[in-house]
Every structure is written in C-alpha cells, then in structure tokens.
## 1
Amino acid sequence: MPDSATIRSSTFKAIVVGGFSSGAFDLIFAIIYYGNRGATTVGILHSIAAGLLGKKASNEGGITTAILGFGLHFLISLSAAAIYLLASRKIPLLRNQPIPCGVAYGAIIYFFMNMVVLPLSALHSHAFPPPVVFAPIAIHLFGVGLPIALAVARYSK
C-alpha cells in the first residue's frame, strides 16, 4: 500500500498534468480557432479575464489583464482536473474507463461553462441553449476532458 507522501505526490501529478495539458490544448485551440475569425491572443486572454472583471475593464487593462486571463484559464483547468480526481476517488469507473469517462467529462465541462459559469460571470452571458458548434465541443471532449481523465488514470493512486 502506498504511503501518504506517495499518494500526495501522485495526486499532485495527476492534477498538474491533467490541468496543464487540458488548459494548453484548450488555449491553443482558442488561439487558432478564434484567431482565424479575427481574434488576437491578447483579446482571447482579455475575454477570459472579462469573466471576472467585466468586458470594459478587461479590455482597458492591457497586458496585465491578458496575464490575469492566462492565469484564470489555467486555474479553471487545474480545478477541473482536481474535481475529476476527487470524483474518481468515490467512483472508480472514472479511473478504470478514462476514455469514455473523459469524453463525457469534457461534455459536462462545456455545458457547465456555458450554462452556469458564463451566466454567473461578470459577462453575464446567457447562452441557452449553449451554442452547439462542433469544433469548440470537440476540443472539450478530446482536448479537455480526455487529457484530465487519462492523467488521473495514469498518476492517481
């Protein structure tokens, strides 16, 4: 049986690997996808910070709010990984079947962000039903939920 230091280390690794990989995939996707639609990287990061600050304050904050948006983005992805890991402690299926569970978790994250987080944010975005656009949903299924589940399955004890 692993000792408590090993468990803490594997828990930390699962959250860090899952959170940072999913956050990186999602952010790279956003830069490419929305960049092809005219958005800049700084603008994308401002839109993330706008959830906390509001659109006007975020856009006026320059590089500072872009950095805040970057940090918030990874805070959210690390939180999503931690939630999945904690749930996997109670529901072993999440560790034992990471591919279908990770894809399902990606869908849950997509809809939770659009139906709960954005409406409660400073943006007060009310997208109901949430926009059903294939590429953003696909990145959440395969680039957000799946890496989190795979990291938890690989590193969590």
## 2
Amino acid sequence: MSTRRLGGKTLPKGLLVDRDYLYLRLYERGVQIQKSVGRADDPGAIERGKEMLAEWRRKLRLRRLGLELKPRSILFEEGADIFWKHHASKVSSSRNMEQRLRMLKGFFAGKKLEEITYLDVEAFRREREKKIKPNSVNAEQNTMMAMYFFLDRWNRQRVIDPIALPPHNPAAMVKRPHQDNFARTRIVSPDEFKKLMDAAQPNLRRIILAAVQTSLRICDLKNLSKANINEATNQLEGFQQKSGKRFTIPINSLFRRLIETAPEDKLLDFKGFGNQWLSLKKACGLHASTQFRDLRRTAGRTMLREGLDLASVSSFLGHTNLEQTVSYVAAPDADKRRGADVLQGIFRYEEAEAAPTEVRQ
C-alpha cells in the first residue's frame, strides 16, 4: 500500500512510499512516470528524491514548451546496463540474466544501440550456436528481445531520458527454432542406473537416488532440508527455484531412508559434486553427453511407461501445463522402435495369408 508520509512527515507531491521503497511518481498527458529513489529507510532518500523531483519537473516544463529532449545515441553496453538496473537485477532469474547480458555485451561491444539490425542478431546466433545449444541461444536472444522491449517502453513512459532505438526490435525479427526441434530424449536405463549406484561414493549415491525418487532439479535437491518435510501428509513440500511454483512430492520408503540417515539438517551433501559426477560417468562408461538432469527426465519417462497418466506425471514434475510435460518426456527412438514391435505382436497376419490372390485367365 502506498503512502505520502515517511517518518511522520508528509512527502512533497510526486514522492510516495510503496513497500518500503521511496518512489518518484508523476503524470504527463495521462501517462504515469515512475522511478525508484531507493529504500525508504535510507537517511538521504528524501533529499535525493527532492532533487530527482526537481529535475523531472524541469524536463516536463521543457517538453510542454516544445523543447523536447533529443534522444541520445548510446552503445549497446550502456543500454544493457540500463536494462539490468531497472529490471533484470530484480527478477528471480537475475543470475542467468546477468550471464546472458554479459555475453551479449561482449558480442555487440562498441555498436550503437539504434544501429543494430536483425542481420546482427542472425550473426550472433550463428556464432553462439558454434559453442552452445540452440535452446541456450534462444534464451540469450529472448533476453536481448526483452531488453529492447523495456527500453522502448521506458522511453515512451519517460522512465529514462530518451535514448535512440531502432524502429523495430531487432531480436524479435529473427526466428528462433522451437525447442521441440532439439529436445533432449536421453534417459538412463536400469542397467546404467545400477552401474552408477554401484560405483558412486556414498554422498553421490544418495544424490542420484534422491534425483530419481523425487524428480527434482539439482538446484532444488541442493536446498532440500528437514524443513521441507511435512510429516502430517508424508510429503516433501517447497518451491521450485526455477519457476517459483510449489512442489509437493510423496515420500516413499526409499526416500524415507535417506531422511533417516541424513547426518544434518540438509538432506544431501553436494560437496565436490561436480568432479565426482564427471569421474563417475567416465568410470561407468556413460556417454560424455549424459547430464545429471537426465535423471529427472528418466523419472518422468519411467512413470509414463509404467502406466501413470500424463496429468499425474506433469504434477509430479511440477510442470505448468501438459504441453510442457509432453515436450519434456518425449519418447526416445528406442521406445518408438518398441512401439513397432508391440503393433507387430498384436496385429499379426501371416505373410502367406496376405499374399495376393492369383488372377485366373
């Protein structure tokens, strides 16, 4: 709830407090202009807010007199920094955003923001796809597209001093290949799982077992503690780090054993996990492309194979919709071949019986 009072004093018109932050908020021709000043408990926030308010009112007077500020030309790096400051740094996936912006800034360094075209974005895609998978390039392109979108909106809403932008969002003009075209289908077979469990160190064995019994992502497994256990419902409960969506997973007897043998509040020990996992893959003869996240897909695919309906599997995996689950547990080629064998076994017709009837003269 917003208020015009801070520390028992009434704030000047144009300044207000909302959720512990001091904001500058003005209107020009029905369009709201808002900018964060800083935390309301900052001793210098009010004075800083008054200075910002005076500067914004000066700009508004210039605009009303027809002395519109000319958009200034800036480099891509500065545009990325503005986007980070006003938006990207405040989202739940800020770490990923920061990495993608760093990569984008490196590629487009020295280029003016308004001069970048779809041809530059296509060149970026070609270069990045030499090093990373198309789905990851999609994520970087999405970040660039969001950056241009927000900068354009902030220009129109007067959130920032006007900057020069291209007439169209260059990142939105380049088609991104659909992730279904390169979806992973790798699953770990029961034999491979046994090899992993037999060769793994005790802490890694616990992690692998937890991954297939809960289908949780590695970031959520790392955060699992006894606080996630609801004994009344016999479930693990918490929030997915990636999506923020709640997860509830029944505790089976195997996972109950992991809980009972956990030496500390944290259920799993990830110390040295990265090197241990790489060494384990090599020792078990698994293909180098095998990833730990394949265990989550293995859990989902196994539940489907054993007759669990798609909606239940989707709920277990914590997906937002069934389409996401269908894409995630796409059938590998081995399962498709098995489908052909199933059809052959059920719908049999002997070749002799199917031979064409001899045509009589």
## 3
Amino acid sequence: MNSEPPRPVLMERAEYVPAYRHEEFIVPLLRVAILDALDRYCRPDGRSKKVLDVGCGRQPFRIHLESMRYHYTAIDTQQFAENEKHFLGAIDGQLPLGLAAEGPFDLLLCTEVLEHVANWEGAFSNFAQLLAPGGRILITCPHVYPLHEVPYDFWRPTTYSLEYFARRVNFTTVVKQQLGDGWDVIGTVLGIAKPHSLRGGIIGALLREFVSKVRWMFWLILKSRFFQKSVSLGPMYISNLVVFERQ
C-alpha cells in the first residue's frame, strides 16, 4: 500500500506581503484583489455570519474578516504555534470531526490552496457540504508560478477549470478575474531564475554575469511597474480569483 509523502514544513505568511523576489508581482496583486472582492461580494448584511478560512496558514485575513463581523473558523493541514487552528485536515479528504456541525458557513475563503489539493472532486463536494444556501466562496490560485510546497504542488488552473468544478456542485459564478498580465509573468520568472553557465572558461563566466545583470535590471524596471502603467502584455496572466454562490 502506497503511503502519502510527508508534507513540507511551511513558512506561511502572517501578512500578505512579499517575502521573496518572485513574490513581488503576485502577492501585492492578490492582496488588493482579495480585499476588494471581500468588500464588494462577501460583505455580511448587517448581522454576524460564519466564515471558514480553508487552508488558513497563519491567518493573514482573519483580522479583516472579523472586522466585517464574521465569526471566524479555520482549517489547515498544519498547526502553527502562534495561532489557533480550529480544525486540522485536508479539504479534499474526510472532514474533521465536528467541522460540519460548526456550519453551515456563509462564506468560505480559500486563497492559494487549491493548487496543492489533488482531489478537486472531493474538495468541491466538501465546499458544497459546508456552504449555506446563498453562501459564497472566494477562491484564488496561481495560473503561472514556480513550483512550491513540493511534492504537494499539483495544478496551475484557469478560471474555466474552476467554473467547471463549481458547476458540478451547483455553484453559480458571481465574479471571475484573471489577475495581472504578461509583465507580471515575466517579472515572476526573472525573480526566481538563476543563470548557470553551460560552457566553461572565462567566456562562460562573463556570459553568466552579463545575463545576471540584465535580468536584475529588467526585474527592477518591472517591479517599478513602468511598463504596466502604459502597456498591457496579454494574453498571459498570473493568478485567478473567483467568487461562487451556492444555489
């Protein structure tokens, strides 16, 4: 019988700010988009409601959700010492004992999680079980991004694949967004790429140094968003954001 590989020990973010060079394009973009979507499409109607933060990590959005008058519950596969995980478990497996009884939830928040979830059929079935009728789920996951949290890195979906699985559990689309453009993709690639010489000697060393300097200079220009303010580079994009509603 094959056993699951151990999950990597993660350095989750407590705040949605970049920690590495290749995060400079996706993380600020996501932070603005997530907060905007919460305020536009997921605001309670004047009374306290329940939210489940799926794959919550170190809970970077908890304060904002509680300020919106949500009663906060969390689930993740790992426990962090500085915060309380209400439930431990994988969203595509059997739900932890007691989680369903905490619901149904008016909002599910699932940010940067589904690329690490192998069984989307199981995950969306659990979403449907946990979400109240008329409740909403906000999902983000990358479309172009380096490998991370291996070997639990499975997918780089599109908004269309997210909608496909949503329809199978009778969710309707409230909003879908393809975040960023080709400049953000290039900046992310440059941020993670490390030049290596394929030839020896001084020529190889000089070429590697030249490529490294050009890469660094272009990355700084992209980080300043000089091009992005004037010219959009499509059709590539860097991340997905969708909000679905349970009928």
